Amino acid sequence: MFKIVSVMIFITIFLFGCTENIINENDQTGPKEGKILYVAESDFTSGKVEWLADPEKETLDGEFSIYNDFVIKTYKGDLYALERYLADNVVKFGKDSSGKWGKLYQTHIGDNVNPSDIAFVTDTSAFITCLNSDKLTKFNPATGLITGSIDLSSFIYLPETNISPNATAILNIDGILYILLQRLNGYTPTRPSLIVIIDPAKEKITDTIPLKFKNGQSMAYHDGILYVCNIGEWGVTGDGALEAITLSSGEVKTIIKEEKLGGNPTKIIMKSDKSLYLQNYISIGNTAVSEIDILSGKVKVTLPGIKEAYGICYDSESNLLYVGERDKESMGVKVFKDNVQVGPVRKSGNSLPPMELLIVE
Predict the structure, then answer these.
(1) Whose CA is closest to 283, among 349, 338, 237?
(2) In angstroms, rounded to a whole number, what is the distance separating the alpha carbons of residues 211 and 229?
(3) Among 30, 136, 138, 178, which one has the highest count of C-beta atoms within 10 angstroms of its own C-beta?
(4) pLDDT at 56
(5) ∠ CA(185), CA(159), CA(184), 5° rounding?
(6) 183-216 pLDDT, tens per residue?
(7) Which residues make Cβ contacts (< 8 Å) with residue 5, sequence separation at least 6?
(8) What does the DSSP assignment read for 93-109?
(9) Using CA atoms, how far apart are residues 296 and 180, in angstroms rounded to an integer?
(10) Which residues, other chains included, contact 40 with Cβ-Cβ below 8 Å and sequence gap of 6+?
């Protein structure tokens, strides 16, 4: 479902991908300086991004349009969007040299590659995972140019029938890249998920970590532990789990299985050393958010009043949890403190259903 005149210009496009510079179109005021909650929104016909600068406000600020299937990421205060299936672009938003805010560039990654996630290494080096590609794409965040790739084809399950190892989430942890591979057979989860470890300085694969469950969706890191959501088959309860990897030893253990969750764990947000939040898909139109005790592997609480969560984000400084709600009767951003909703649903008169939430400072 989910989803980028002269000979010299021709060579640049052919070798590095097509980068469209659109600074001259920047005429938006943009968000103010400081901590901003960005809200990615889509009804899968059109897409937009709105933002919230003050959690006390009851309406979202500003907006800009974007492709209808996308995810948002941040690096050093700038906002990046991966326009997914059938667009296949990376887009950077921020201030240009004149101080105007807007779209700085748009780079086409490749046809039908379906970009999924970004990990930034330096100001001029970042890596993009693509679900439909057998490569990890390297690009320059400063210029938007595609600068290389790392071959992942050896991890494809049944390469005679599949074209990709289905690279989804990626994290930069202390200068080392961790890539989550689903290794599907078509759309069917057949092999357990695999973590591939890459040294980005050498652009070499250094190790792998096999997991116990299939169809990995997301990862989060905290204090030496890498947490991974594996859902097995969508809509089937009992073949997925939240797993934890101790990176110093490579030990893999199961934190909580789907039987206890009652659904598929799709997204992780760390709260503290002792607990985290899980976005938990139960059925169409029914996605819950639960706080999980890491040590006991038990559900501490399932947040009340959530019908169809799509995007969660936690601000440890204010102890506020933001939840994107797609249910048409209560659509918008719900704000929780100590797992109790505070204030009304945040949205504007033009809001679309949320897809993802992201705090940028």
Answers:
(1) 237
(2) 10
(3) 136
(4) 85
(5) 20
(6) 999 999 999 999 999 999 999 999 999 999 999 9
(7) none
(8) EEE-TTS-EEEEEEEE-
(9) 25
(10) 47, 49, 70, 71, 72, 81, 311, 354, 355, 356, 357, 358
